[in-house]
Amino acid sequence: MTDLLVTLQTLDDTAIVTLNRPEKLNALNLELVSALRDTLLAVANDARLRLVIIRGAGRSFCSGLDLDMMAAEGMPPEFYPVQEEAFRLIETMNKLVVAAIHGYCLGGGVQLAIACDLRLASDDTVLALPAINEGLFPGMAPYRLPRLIGLGLARRYIYTGDPIPLDLAHQIGLIDWIIPARSFEDELEKLLQKLRAVPFTAALHGKQLMANAFDQSFSAAYHDSLWRLEQCLSSDDVARARALWMERKQSRTAQRP
Amino acid sequence: MNNHFPYQKIRIQQENNVTVLTLADPDAHNAFSNELLGELCDALSRVSSTVLLLNAEGDHFSIGRPPQSYSAAPETWMKGYYLVMRANELLMRFPGVTIAAVQGHARGAGCSLAGRCDLVVAAETATFSFPELRAGVPPVIVASYYSRKLPWHAFLRLALTGQEVSAAEACRLALVTEVVPDHELFQRARELADDLAMIDAGALATLKHFLLSSESASTPQANRLAYAALLETLASRA
């Protein structure tokens, strides 16, 4: 099915969502964002899935807004709401979502990446929010980026459209892991293994608490956390961790002379 | 299940103690045409359950009265406004809990109907507005309810400017009770409906009846009415 603009592969609890318009460096047009929204909706509604990887086919992750589309017909009225629906699904779905980035990650590509829970980037990645050069602001990045990297740096890169140096992106938490381009697949697989072992219930409650971190009062967040703590305490993960601790403790006691 | 209800513009589904009433004219953005309103009134006068969940198919809850209705013949709009008034009345008299699940636009009579439900769950991208005045129609049916239920200036702002407000702001104004991510709207509303369907229907009907009957009573009168209502409910169980 190479004609699909977004492909979905699932293996056990993991979904791989691939932007598949490589000849255009996965530039975002209405068809692509619609396909992305539909795919992510299916992923969000699939209770078996826990981990979602978003990546780009070909030489780049995503080069952002399709400038050919802009030049020819402007921005179709549905484009922006559908694109934002897709990004918002990433933030609100009960899954851990990881952007696996390589090559160009520009504009809408960065917008997509910062809606994800985590970002891994190949060392050949080029990051920038060049919307300003097209007379635009980068969608909801002015909302999301300050939450992630702080207002000062967000202002600088949103006003200037300058490339964000990769080492800086790493330091400020815009990129969580940088890996060599030549071992991208191996390192990605290692990271996935690590994330598959993350206790899922706790991770999700953490995700939801963090989603409201900047908008809720302490009182509301604390109240919310009480209920979430109960959910975690009654999960299998906590039961397993407790049993493991007990086992270790007993073996230490037995080893004592 | 739909056989008893031969409707074109709405759908009814009943299971356990929940009735789901769905506005089902998405191509017209669920505009409150006379046909849709007629079916809505018919349904509301016939169904009874512990919970009524009012939701809508398509991108928008309802854009309110159809734009072309403003230029329709007098008998058409006279009937239309009668039906709007009647639907509001029937909804407010519903003996069970009423819940609205709102996505997209809720405008005019659509907004007014959704907001009259006991609980209003909104998708985070939903918007609420009363744009009637801009079309030269005084939003008096809206005012009959919302001038009392909303803070005074909040009501006037909505009624005078016709401005769309976001779900989050509608929640702050208490027009909406809960805001959820778009893709969770129907699931969340359904969970809420199923949870509330376990409430004792008699106790619920007493509360709802009391709220209506005590609306114009003074506080001491309401206190007396409450006492009488309690005795009556408890006596009926003995």
Write the layout of secondary structure elements.
The complex is a heterodimer of chains A (257) and B (238).
Chain A: E1 6-11, E2 14-19, H1 30-44, E3 51-56, H2 67-73, H3 79-92, E4 96-101, E5 104-106, H4 108-115, E6 118-122, E7 126-128, H5 141-149, H6 151-160, E8 163-164, H7 166-171, E9 177-179, H8 184-196, H9 200-211, H10 218-233, H11 236-255
Helix pairs in contact in A: 1-3, 4-5, 5-6, 9-10
Chain B: E1 10-15, E2 18-23, H1 34-46, E3 51-56, H2 74-92, E4 97-102, E5 105-107, H3 108-115, E6 119-123, E7 127-129, H4 140-149, H5 152-161, E8 165-166, H6 167-172, E9 178-180, H7 185-196, H8 201-213, H9 219-237
Parallel strand pairs in B: 2-3, 3-4, 4-6, 5-7, 6-9
Antiparallel strand pairs in B: 1-2, 7-8
Low-confidence parts of chain A: none
**Largest interchain contact:** A-B, 9 and 6 residues
Number of helical regions of chain B: 9
> Structural class from helices and strands of chain A?
alpha/beta
Tell how many strands the DSSP assignment of chain B holds: 9
How do the strands line up in the largest sheet of chain A? 1-2-3-4-6-9
Alpha carbon gap, first and last residue of chain A = 65 Å
The whole-angstrom Rg of chain B is 18 Å
Would you identify the regions of chain B where 5 or more consecutive residues have pLDDT less than 50?
none
Strand content of chain B: 15-25%
How many strands, what sense, and barrel or not for the largest sheet of chain A? 6 strands, mixed
Average pLDDT of chain B, to the nearest integer? 95
- Mean of pLDDT of chain A: 95
General form of chain B: globular
Radius of gyration of chain A: 20 Å
Rough shape of chain A? Answer: globular
What's the end-to-end separation of chain B, in Å? 36 Å
